[in-house]
Design a protein that fits this description.
Strand content: 15-25%
Distance between the termini: 55 Å
Number of strands: 11
Helix content: 40-55%
Bound molecules: 6-O-phosphono-beta-D-fructofuranose
Structural class: alpha/beta
Order of helices and strands: EHEHEHEHEHEHEHEHHHEHEEHH
CATH class of the largest domain: Alpha Beta
Largest sheet: 7 strands, mixed
CATH topology of the largest domain: Rossmann fold
Length: 356
């Protein structure tokens, strides 16, 4: 049995651990299995760049960050656009698959990756996917691998900021990744004891943010820490159309939302503000033990789908149990933080402000 494997989109911790889980399960259950590793995601499948992987390639990688076969971003919206040489990308991927005589493709990726995986599945290829991303925004699964490791790193950043913020009596903003969703900021913000948490799903009112800081000052607190999602948005901006917002942002002097929020706070409170952006460190390094465990389970479950010849599914997790979710249900949806959820209610009850 010949299996193709690829990792696509932004990397994260635990990609290697997940591939190891798939490979070990296949090697353990099949006498004759060959795994082809495509280089740099869908690119390798398009251009026939790959190598045959050996069982030893999957040894010693449980704790290793990044991806041993490389990744790249191949936007779904450009899949229908021929490459610079006029090559049809989807046809090229199908051709490589058929030429190699693959039984199926194992695809590890996030939202964009799942749209293309679904497209390939609709085009008749056998596909099984695993949910990868620090953003935890894939529909159909409670958790994605990479997320918890990133929470740990973003939380450490907030922990470090705490001591310096307390020493200087400053307002600190830690900007957390997460693209269009706030899961990472919410978890790191709560775990790091942030005083104010700003998420894309809960547009903020800068007056309320300032009030929350002033309240702390009145209570004798010398510093305040804000965990701000890179996708956080003000109520005012959230009311704009996509086009209007794009136009407004093109004119802004600020490199990211945190600097805009910081400038407003400084102007209105007179307090000294600093912005810290851990950026891609949140995706770097090895996976935390929790991610190693779920990756091993996801990998094993994905391999089992292959053993049973059940294709067109993503493996996910619901209430601690592994589930298989049809790709057609996953593709094109985002799992967002629910502003009215009990999670948000519980955190608000502590007096933590979401600026709304
Ligand atoms: O999707 C993962 C992610 O790290 C997001 O949190 C972030 O917005 C984006 O990727 C950054 O992408 P890139 O690595 O291409 O700059």
């Amino acid at each position: 049995m010949k299996i193709g494997m690829l990792t696509s989109g932004g990397d994260c911790q635990s990609l290697n651990a997940s591939m190891r889980g798939v490979a070990k399960t296949l090697y353990n259950n099949l006498k004759d299995v060959e795994i082809i590793g495509f280089h740099e995601g869908y690119k390798g499948l398009m251009y026939g760049e790959y190598h045959t992987m050996e069982p030893k390639d999957f040894s010693g990688i449980l704790t290793q960050g990044g991806t041993i076969i490389g990744t790249s971003r191949q936007p779904f919206k450009l899949m229908g656009t021929p490459d610079a040489n006029g090559m049809d990308k989807v046809e090229a991927m199908k051709k490589t698959y058929k030429k190699l005589g693959l039984e199926c493709l194992v695809i590890l990726g996030g939202n964009g990756t799942h749209k293309t995986a679904n497209l390939l599945s609709e085009q008749g290829l056998n596909v099984v996917t695993l949910p990868k991303t620090i953003d935890n925004d894939i529909w159909g699964t409670d958790i994605t691998f990479g997320f918890q490791s990133a929470v740990d790193i973003a939380t450490s950043a907030i922990d470090c900021i705490h001591t310096t913020a307390a020493s200087h009596g400053r307002v600190f903003i830690v900007e957390v990744m997460g693209h269009k969703v706030g899961w990472l900021t919410l978890h790191a913000g709560v775990a790091g004891g942030a005083d104010i948490i700003l998420l894309p799903e809960i547009p903020y009112d800068i007056d309320k943010v300032v009030k929350a800081i002033q309240k702390r000052t009145e209570e004798g607190k010398r510093f305040s820490i804000l965990a701000v999602a890179e996708g956080a948005i003000s109520k005012e901006d959230a009311a704009l159309s996509k086009k209007e917002l794009k136009k407004k942002r093109a004119k802004t002097q600020y490199p990211s939302i945190s600097y805009e929020v910081g400038a407003e706070i400084e102007k209105r409170t007179g307090q000294e503000v600093r912005v810290t952006i851990p950026g891609h460190t949140q995706r770097g390094g090895g996976p935390c033990p929790y991610d190693r465990v779920i990756s091993t389970r996801f990998g094993s479950a994905a391999a089992e789908l292959i053993l049973n010849k059940e294709y067109g599914y993503m493996v996910g997790m619901k209430n601690g149990e592994i589930v298989k979710v049809p790709l057609g249900e996953v593709a094109g949806k985002l799992k967002m933080v629910e502003p009215d959820s009990s999670f948000i209610h519980e955190i608000k009850n502590l007096g933590i402000s979401f600026g709304d």
